[in-house]
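step=encode ok
step=design start
structure_in=
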């Protein structure tokens, strides 16, 4: 008995209607990216391991899918190493490549590798799949698409403002109201760590803080304690777990709190510039909220941090995120190349739109015209018309088999094809086509030229 086929956990197949819905999201995001001046690039699905490892923190490194070397990959591994069963050391010997974890690090590699071909500041967008060895759950997959936009070669805070506006523009075009754009600044987090005496534990501090919405205040405190952050320091930071007020009130509180930290004060100034200007120009549908617990556990962020939450009516979590990275290209040898970027999580956006029933007006791609197949001679006559229709960008197809008429008509009905063309001996003799409206049942006989003209207007 043949084994029942399956796919790996955390991956999915997509039906034609699902692909159509996903393409609708892709095209909407792509249109806004290009409206804002971004250019498309693509990078390989996998990179050299050394390109990816060490860029996402300890937790991120564990989630990177490693690719085994081809051939007898164990042959060159020392027996002593194998017997020690040290998986990390063995992995470095048997795997030299890995599936990309995100699009930002490969982009940084791209910039360094192609720096002599690029005009800076360089605005690029990229819409490709990424892979993470995470535990699958609702809205979290092992293979998923990211839609990124980044600018490198400029330290201007106007880019941060434009990215807030870009998020708002995309969700407005998707008719998705109620999204919340959370904003913070990594310098503020560094300032907080400094004033509570945990500056040397900044990464541990931010990684734990970033989990507040998942594990709660007690869970964050427990993780910070386990990472060696003192109880006294944790008590100082606890008021931030329930930071309240308007954006301006939060900015004023932060300015007072971080007055003795140069780094923290700079972060407040940057955040105030972005918030003030976003509020000045306004947003169409999204809400901008300062969230001082927003950390995003990626080591390369140095300034603004973004995270976009779905409407509260949908239990989905973030549908986008990003931030500024002042020297990500430095790890590849190109120093002082500041960048900032954001990402849309296409798969989660899809689930949100589906749950809110916002795909109702979307139609599955289908032909306008189906040619009925009564046999080879009739099919050959129909093919002449098909060639002309397709030259005029009229979606059309020929039923491949000379099946019973009822079966072919049912096919047209199920695919909601609005018109069928029927050709028999009489039509061939007179060099005409019979066009039938599947909704009204009306039929008309027309020449090939008339057929092209009529179907072009449908």
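sequence_out=
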């Amino acid at each position: 008995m043949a084994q029942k086929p399956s796919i790996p956990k955390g991956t999915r197949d997509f039906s034609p209607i699902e692909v159509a819905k996903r393409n609708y999201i892709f095209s909407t995001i792509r249109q806004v990216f290009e409206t804002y001046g971004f250019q498309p690039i693509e990078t390989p699905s996998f990179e050299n391991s050394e390109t990816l490892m060490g860029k996402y923190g300890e937790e991120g490194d564990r989630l990177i899918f490693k690719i085994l070397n081809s051939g007898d990959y164990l042959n060159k591994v020392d027996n002593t190493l194998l017997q020690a069963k040290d998986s990390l050391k063995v992995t470095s010997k048997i795997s030299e490549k890995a599936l990309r974890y995100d699009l930002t690090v490969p982009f940084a590699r791209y910039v360094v590798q192609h720096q002599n071909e690029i005009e800076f500041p360089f605005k690029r967008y990229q819409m490709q799949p990424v892979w993470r060895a995470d535990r699958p759950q609702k809205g979290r997959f092992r293979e998923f698409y990211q839609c990124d936009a980044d600018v490198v070669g400029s330290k201007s805070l106007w880019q941060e403002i434009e990215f807030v506006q870009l998020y708002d523009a995309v969700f407005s075009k998707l008719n998705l109201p109620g999204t919340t754009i959370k904003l913070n600044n990594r310098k503020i987090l560094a300032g907080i760590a400094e004033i509570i005496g945990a500056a040397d534990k900044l990464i541990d501090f931010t990684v734990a803080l970033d989990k507040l919405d998942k594990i709660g205040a007690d869970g964050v405190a427990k993780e910070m304690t386990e990472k060696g952050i003192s109880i006294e320091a944790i008590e100082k930071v606890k008021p931030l777990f329930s930071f309240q007020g308007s954006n301006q009130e939060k900015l004023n509180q932060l300015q007072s709190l971080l007055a003795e930290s140069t780094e923290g004060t700079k972060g407040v100034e940057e955040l105030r510039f972005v918030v003030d200007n976003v509020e000045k120009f306004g947003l169409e549908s999204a809400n901008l909220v300062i969230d001082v617990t927003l950390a995003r556990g990626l080591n390369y962020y140095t300034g603004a941090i973004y995270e976009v939450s779905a409407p509260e009516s949908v239990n989905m979590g973030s549908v986008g995120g990003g931030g500024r990275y002042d020297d990500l290209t430095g790890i590849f040898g190109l120093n002082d190349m500041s960048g900032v970027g954001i990402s849309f999580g296409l798969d989660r956006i899809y689930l949100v739109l589906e749950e809110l029933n916002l795909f109702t007006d979307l139609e599955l791609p289908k032909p306008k015209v189906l040619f009925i197949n009564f046999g080879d001679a009739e099919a050959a006559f129909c093919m002449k018309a098909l060639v002309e229709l397709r030259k005029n960008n009229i979606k059309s197809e020929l039923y491949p088999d000379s099946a019973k008429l009822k079966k072919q008509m049912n096919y047209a009905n199920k695919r909601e094809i609005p018109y069928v063309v029927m050709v028999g001996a009489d039509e061939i003799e007179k060099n005409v086509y019979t066009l039938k409206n599947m909704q009204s049942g009306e039929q008309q006989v027309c020449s090939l030229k008339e057929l092209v003209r009529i179907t072009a207007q449908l």
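step=design ok
step=annotate ok -> The mean pLDDT is 90.
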